[in-house]
Amino acid sequence: MSSLRAIPTILRISAAETLAYRTEFVIWMLTTTMPLIMLGLWTSVADEAPFGNFGEREFIAYYLAALVVRNVTGSWVVWQINDDVRRGSLNIKLLRPIHPFLYYMTHHLGSVPLRTVVAIPFTLILLFTSARDLIITDPARLAIFVASLAGAWMLTFYAMLLIGSLALFVDKSVAIFDIYLGVFTILSGYLIPLSLLPDWAQTIADYAPFRYMLAFPVELAIGQMSTEQALTELGTQWAFVAALVVAALLVWRSGIRRFEAYGS
Question: Cα 240 to the chain's mean position, in Å?
Fold first, then answer.
């Protein structure tokens, strides 16, 4: 109960911090604009002829939707945990009557409203381009899309928690995150739609969680899957969420035992 009572306070603090450091926040958000660069590249290619099943308006819809999804679901908790471990402020969090994971999650949820505001202009651009006809409008798929956004946020957040928790074993787990980010940019569909990858890369992507962090909600948003397919994909996405939650908790608990054994 004490944990639940603390959640509104943490949300208010997080929202206040986001507003207080809004310039840094917006700069960080703008660093996720790689889809705009890829949009310029691929629309130039598609201007000559369609590439795979993507023409010019399909590329516009895909990359603008990818930009929105990435901005809304991104997370920086891996740096936060590394900083807490390095500075020793993790000790304070361990003494609080709330699990650090719940604290980190609530803290990051507090920034989602402003992240959504930043994503609105890109949404409006999408709605007023030639790609607007591709955007889903039926209530069933819209509901699945909202659930897929929540799943993408959870997957990204717990992947960051898992990597951040490795800072309890190694000097800095940010280096591991750099490797993760390189894999993510390819297998999530962030740089290029997965259907345009070689067959072997598509097979790897199908069995990895990365596509459910971005490509799945994007493909759903621009009408590239049926309701039945979307429901199946949603179930797979949340299965990955459950697996990552368990994995992050196991690594964290093992790391905390080591952390405490060395006297913090």
Answer: 13
